[in-house]
Structure formats: structure tokens, C-alpha cells
Design goal:
This protein is of the alpha+beta class and 107 residues long. The protein has one domain (3-87): Alpha-Beta Plaits. The chain has helices spanning 16-20, 67-76, 92-95, and strands at residues 3-5, 26-28, 33-35, 55-57. It contains 3 helices and 4 strands.
Length: 107
């Protein structure tokens, strides 16, 4: 099962995860990252790297985040690949503990 980026990434966009991905399956949007489920090899390397715990196995996605499975698949086809670490968003520290951020997703 592929890994999925969930809501915690929105308005943070830490990129620690992209540095360890051996298959370049991360894609970068304006204020979030997503994983291409067709490219993810389920290696588990990215999950512990995320400082906001936004990454999880598709099998472990709780019901309230199930929409992110489809969202990752959809947006990974539109957004460019990111494979090098960048700085997090300027106000990431303010947003990292915020819940219910889906309305802030920029496509």
C-alpha cells in the first residue's frame, strides 16, 4: 500500500521526507506535498521524517482523512515532482499543530 500525505502538511510543507524518497514520488503544491500512489514503493522511509506526522500508510489513514487518498492521487498528476529539501513555509511553526486545515489547501 502506498503512503499518503494528510492534512497536517497543509500550510507547513516540511520537505524532510523528499530527501529520503528513493523513487521521487513526492509532488509539490503551493502549500502542501502529496505522494503519487503509482510511484510510491511503500519503503516507509518518509513517514518518520515528517515533523508533523502528516504521512501514513494508506491502510492506516483514519476515516476522517480518507479523502486524502483520492486527493494525493489527483494532485500528484497535476503538481511537479519535488526531490530536494527546501525550507518549510515561513509560518509553518504557527500551523503545525492546527487541526482542520483542509479549507486552506491551495490547488
Amino acid at each position: 500500500m502506498p503512503f499518503i500525505v494528510t492534512e497536517a502538511c497543509i500550510k507547513c510543507k516540511y520537505t524532510d521526507c523528499v530527501e529520503v524518497c528513493p523513487v521521487d514520488c513526492f509532488h509539490e503544491g503551493p502549500n502542501m506535498l502529496v505522494i503519487d500512489p503509482d510511484e510510491c514503493i511503500d519503503c516507509t522511509l518518509c513517514e518518520p521524517e515528517c515533523p508533523v506526522e502528516a504521512i501514513m500508510s494508506e491502510d492506516d489513514v483514519p476515516d476522517n482523512f480518507k479523502d486524502f487518498i483520492k486527493l494525493n492521487a489527483e494532485l500528484s498528476k497535476k503538481w511537479p515532482i519535488i526531490n530536494e529539501m527546501k525550507d518549510a513555509m515561513a509560518d509553518a511553526e504557527q500551523w503545525k499543530a492546527v487541526k482542520g486545515k483542509i479549507q486552506h489547501l491551495e490547488r
